[in-house]
Inverse folding.
């Protein structure tokens, strides 16, 4: 089960109140991950961002090698 709340302030400040309210409803409900939506979204996108960074790095390296190769060819010519 997932519970989402919208807050107007800092969601970390409301964490103890949320835990108390859930415990008041049912003490047997485990609370595993209590975090903000921004942190959840960042964790979800972390792998995709790393993949994008890796591909961009390889593309930049390929462009540098291609530029060096073209420069060498034109210099030899």
């Amino acid at each position: 089960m997932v519970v989402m709340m919208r807050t107007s302030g800092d969601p970390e400040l409301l964490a103890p109140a949320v835990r108390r309210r859930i415990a008041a409803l049912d003490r047997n409900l485990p609370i595993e991950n209590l975090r903000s939506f921004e942190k959840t979204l960042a964790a979800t996108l972390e792998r995709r961002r790393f993949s994008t960074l890796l591909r961009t790095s390889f593309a930049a390296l390929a462009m540098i090698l291609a530029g060096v190769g073209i420069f060498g060819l034109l210099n030899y010519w």
Remarks:
- The chain has two domains: 1-34, 44-77.
- The chain has a mean pLDDT of 90.
